[in-house]
Amino acid sequence: MPPRPMNAAPSPRVSTLQTRLHRFLHTVVLPQESAINTALRLGSSNPEPSAGAQLALIRQKAQLAGLWNLFLPTSPRASQGLSHWEFAPMIEAMGHIAWATELFNCAQPDAGNMQLLDSYASEALKDAWLEPLLRAETRSAWAAAEPDAALHQPDTLQTHATREGAHWLLNGHKTWVQGLLDPRAACLLVLCRTDAEAALHRQFSVLLVPIGTDGVHIGRQLHGWGTAQSVLAEVRFDGVRVPESHVIGQPGQGLEMLQARQRIVGLHEALWSLGAAERALGLLIARLQTRRIGEQLAVHHPVWQQRIARTRTGLDTTRMLARRSAWQMDQNDSHLPLQELAMLQSLALPLALDAVQWSIVAHEADALDDSLPLAGLAAQLRLMQQLTPPIETLHAQIAQGELLR
């Protein structure tokens, strides 16, 4: 049977949701963007209460508007959830504002964690930990990366857990832990080795660890370019006792879950990057239409026209790849070939970084003003760059996929 053709037209329900999301962003969020940017910047290490209150109020409005948990498809716990294809243009729209995904409860690391919990966790764990996340009453953290290991080489990971009666005894050191320092953070999802004698792909599991558990030690805070939205941390686990029932899915499914999460988060971040690039391009063109280079408007200068053309070409072509990837994930139970994910990540993030940087150059000192989103977008993109495999690793994955054809 030939593959089902990709239908580009959104359903009436999705079209209505898209219209409502765009209206909400323009009428509710954008008028407060500058004030919230200021509050977040001033409270970069400890966000000001005023920023938290403003964001909480907007979240309430978004929830009442039915713009909530849109990323979680085919789940009875998120009735508004959309397919990957349907969600694609919406997270791209959220990329216009550095912190917009949080307003709709679609922010990382929670979105990736909630999808793992929804797909793999027991009903008891879903009731206790997923439901508060879906209501944004709590937040979560993802602990996979380690200081002396690489996630694409899982045999180098050292964090491990051993059974001891009705508990797991967890020991190890994780870094680049996102979400851990949020005041609402309640739990960590920890990738760890649970059976060193099994085949490599069955050695790892994911444990849900409540943050207040004895032996969980939050270490160095890693401030990402001075923004409150980019704070990470290191964490050590010293003899942490985790109930046996807190394993997500089955023991040995850890690498499967890591790959599933990487596909989902990779797609979301690529789409978000396209939204950031689109916003930066619009601001760039507006600035160049008022700035002069000698007697000539900057918008007519060949260098700037070349940058505009490169950004527009990159945006439209990468968007087509991203939408195709989203559609493929819908057809294949959220599976996406590693080669295609690598292609998407190798295109979207560098494109957005260039677009934002060119817009910053054009705006000069004004780019740092809180009335513009450029500083926040740049910080968020740089953080994403640190959490994404290096471009050389992505290119190697693409080449290996091609050689295996």
From TrEMBL:
GO molecular function list: acyl-CoA dehydrogenase activity; flavin adenine dinucleotide binding
Claim: Metal-binding is one of the keywords in the record: no
GO CC annotations on file: cytoplasm
InterPro entries (UniProt xref): Acyl-CoA_dehydrogenase (IPR050741), Acyl-CoA_Oxase/DH_mid-dom (IPR006091), Acyl-CoA_Oxase/DH_mid-dom_sf (IPR046373), AcylCo_DH-like_C (IPR036250), AcylCo_DH/oxidase_C (IPR009075), AcylCoA_DH/ox_N_sf (IPR037069), AcylCoA_DH/oxidase_NM_dom_sf (IPR009100)
Pfam families with a match to the protein in the record: Acyl-CoA_dh_1, Acyl-CoA_dh_M
Acyl-CoA dehydrogenase/oxidase C-terminal domain: residues covered: 270-400
Keywords: FAD, Flavoprotein, Oxidoreductase
Every Acyl-CoA oxidase/dehydrogenase middle domain range: 142-240
Required cofactor names: FAD
Gene Ontology annotations of biological process type: fatty acid beta-oxidation using acyl-CoA dehydrogenase
Similarity field: Belongs to the acyl-CoA dehydrogenase family.
Protein name in the entry: Acyl-CoA dehydrogenase related to the alkylation response protein AidB
Protein source organism: Thiomonas bhubaneswarensis
